[in-house]
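Form 7-S
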Amino acid sequence: MRLCTSLLLFAALASAEVSKTPFTVAARTSRTAVWVGDRFEYVVRVEYQPELEFVKDHLKKDEIDVQPFEILAATTATGTLPQGGKYLELRLQLTTYATNATEIAIPPITLFYFKQARGPDKEDTPAEAVNIPAFPMAVRDTVIDASLGIRDRRPPLPIDPMSWIVPGMLGVCGLAAIAIGGGRIALAQFRLGVWEQKLAERSRMKSLQQSMEEIRRTPAATPLELASFYDKASEILRGLAAEKLGDGAGLTPNELKQALTAAGDPERHAIVLSELLAQCDLIRYTPDGMEQGRRLHSEFLTKLAELTERP
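Output:
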């Protein structure tokens, strides 16, 4: 029983001593590890009773020594806490250029305070000192010792031959399947006459272009040359329509247009073809046709080029 009472009394006394502590000190940094040349912030905060006063005159950039760190900026701030106490905050922006040092510490900083006297006849107590302990920091150097080798160098991984033989075989099989499939498609198209149709279409287009070029080069300066030009043009145009219809003899230009459209010919192509045939018949079978042929000759050639360049 006496032992329990003694322990409780000791705890109460310790609590009373803690409650009477006039100030608390805390220090922190924005980064715990830095590279050489990096900037970081070091903050020291003191919270104290209102009867104390801390001295700030020596807390300036040029008067604080924190070697091997360099002070880039130093600021202090004071204020009142909600419980009636006060605080002092020292903020230092630091950097270091120390090389070949993996661990260094921010040196201790000394703060001074005094207790303010109460009453007109009392004097302030002498100043006392508070030492802020050294704050350890980890520093990494960007200059690497070449004798240590490359930091991220790794030994080459062993390669198992079986690890690439199976994927390689699968790739070869896939290429073979593509080749076989492509060959079958080409053979099927060949049997269906697709290639023959394409070759025939190329041959027809080449013959058409040659015929059109022949028409363009035909002279049309005299009435006889104009008559020959439009006779040749009408023959080629009706032959072009006959390739699509099978037979277009005896049809008027308008009837040819309707027949070509019904047979699946593009509408614009059928219209141009019928207009050219109508112009040929107008020039060949009207009294003043040669005069109109001479006047509309350039327009006829423009439409003829459009007909040749159809899709």
